[in-house]
Design brief:
Layout (H helix, E strand, L loop, with lengths): L2 E12 L2 E12 L3 E5 L6 H9 L6 E6 L2 E2 L5 H6 L2 E4 L11 H6 L14 H7 L1 H5 L10 H13 L5 E5 L7 H16 L3 E5 L3 H7 L2 E6 L2 E7 H5 L2 H8 L2
Parallel strand pairs: 3-8, 3-9, 6-7, 7-8
Antiparallel strand pairs: 1-2, 1-4, 4-5, 9-10
Length: 236
């Protein structure tokens, strides 16, 4: 498999406060990978640096073989990278259908692109609520909409930042089911989440960060066999 995303020695700071100290990992095409760690350890900053939302001060990020760490965020998005952000950030005064159609594009030039009907098939609840405004949805429905909106761009890489945070257990399971479906379809995914037991079943590779540094990386088999890592670095 070709390498889709390669992050090498990434260093990022906010003003005089350095947050990332040489973070590195890679994702292959069709792979599901995770970025793990407690809150405040640099996971979201890593994602923001990859997306061009926060400019890295050192290291490099390559996507589809091209170096992107100095590119503007809109250019990176158009290359085929989509994020489901922490907090969802849907358009409150647009309907469900308008939220989805606003992002419609085939950035990966897929011959079987995500369409409105495909998203509605994945999340039937969104079809039922198609005419409701974003601010009329429950938290779980908003999360489904955020995932559907990202898929409507037909990305090469889908990034989910705390995709199940604050959701009821049944809704959380809907999101896990969605991710399993996307994996089986060959979608490349990077997931940030705290439910390690679910992640070792879903992903192939995991990277743990602590205070802006990578402290462990390995396969699901290796992570599943070392529960002490969960307690030490993830707080499970």
């Amino acid at each position: 498999m070709e390498t889709l995303l390669e992050v090498d020695d990434l260093q990022t700071a906010y003003g005089s406060s350095q947050i990332l100290f040489g973070v590195g990992f890679s994702i292959r095409a069709g792979q599901v990978a995770t970025l793990l760690g407690r809150n405040g350890m640099g996971k979201t900053t890593t994602i923001r640096s990859i997306l061009g939302l926060t400019r890295a001060r050192g290291g490099s990020v390559r996507f589809l073989g091209e170096r992107i760490d100095q590119l503007p965020a809109d250019r990176i998005a158009r290359m085929g990278m989509a994020v489901v952000p922490e907090g969802r950030q849907i358009f409150a005064t647009l309907s469900v259908q308008e939220n989805l159609l606003a992002f419609a594009s085939n950035r990966s030039r897929s011959d079987q692109p995500w369409t409105l009907e495909r998203v509605y098939h994945l999340f039937p609840r969104l079809k039922e609520r198609a005419r409701n405004m974003g601010n009329q949805l429950s938290g779980g429905e908003q999360q489904m909409l955020a995932v559907g909106r990202a898929l409507m761009t037909n990305p090469h890489l889908l990034i989910l930042d705390e995709a199940t945070e604050g959701l009821a257990p049944l809704i959380r399971e809907d999101i896990w089911h969605c991710l399993r479906t996307l994996k089986s379809a060959g979608q490349s995914i990077l997931v940030i989440d705290k439910y390690v037991q679910k992640l070792v079943q879903l992903a192939e590779h995991h990277t743990i960060v602590e205070r802006g540094k990578v402290v462990w990386s390995g396969s699901s088999e290796e992570l599943g066999a070392q529960p002490e890592l969960w307690h030490r670095y993830i707080g499970v």
